[in-house]
Design brief:
With 187 residues, this protein is mainly alpha-helical. It is built from seven helices and three strands. A three-stranded antiparallel beta sheet has the order 2-1-3.
Length: 187
């Protein structure tokens, strides 16, 4: 397996983990992408775009819980990427290129927002451990693996192809009331 393919798959696992965790929160997924970086040979960048406006409209009554859920969403990518490398017996230090810079900044933002609002402090080590346990459950990991496989082939999922890709994951995770950007439903 080439380094290029490994990085493509690792990026797909990273973004798939964000998406699967988003479904369990539930966040409305708008688009998931993985693309080669323009000025770097063999590296990929990705994104899992979610609609936070709808989430915050229903979560403003509990900023701390909303912050914890969003922190889990951002931690999931790197946790899945590391698990992917572990399953492939690849040293992640030889491959990772600060893949979670944006995610780390978002985690810091949500911790600060929680603190600024006078909420009970969030213990990142506990949230990280909870997220790792969740990512490593057989049902969640299977959903991440399935979605990563689709992403490696499609490279971008939005609207109808996003709905088609995520529908079996909803069924597998028994998520009955999840919404898609195009108005479709998970189950």
């Amino acid at each position: 397996m080439t380094t290029n393919h490994i990085m493509k798959e690792a990026t797909a696992y990273h973004e798939a983990a964000h998406a699967v965790l988003a479904l369990t929160i539930p966040l409305e997924i708008v688009k998931i992408t993985i693309n080669p970086e323009e000025d770097s040979e063999g590296s990929y960048e990705g994104g899992c775009e979610v609609d936070l406006k709808g989430f915050f409209n229903i979560s403003l009554n509990n900023i701390r819980n909303a912050s914890i859920e969003l922190i889990k969403f951002h931690l999931a990518g790197k946790i899945a990427e590391q698990k992917y490398f572990q399953e492939k017996s690849i040293d992640p230090n030889s491959m990772l290129k600060n893949s979670a810079c944006y995610d780390n900044a978002q985690v810091e933002y949500y911790i600060k927002t929680n603190y600024d609002n006078g909420e009970i402090p969030i213990e990142l080590n506990i949230v990280s451990e909870e997220t790792s346990k969740k990512v490593n459950t057989p049902e969640i990991w299977s959903a991440i693996r399935d979605l990563a496989g689709i992403l490696v082939q499609a490279r971008q999922l939005e609207e109808n192809n996003l709905t088609r890709a995520l529908a079996p994951i909803f069924v597998g995770l028994n998520l009955a009331d999840c919404k898609f950007r195009d108005g479709g439903r998970g189950a």
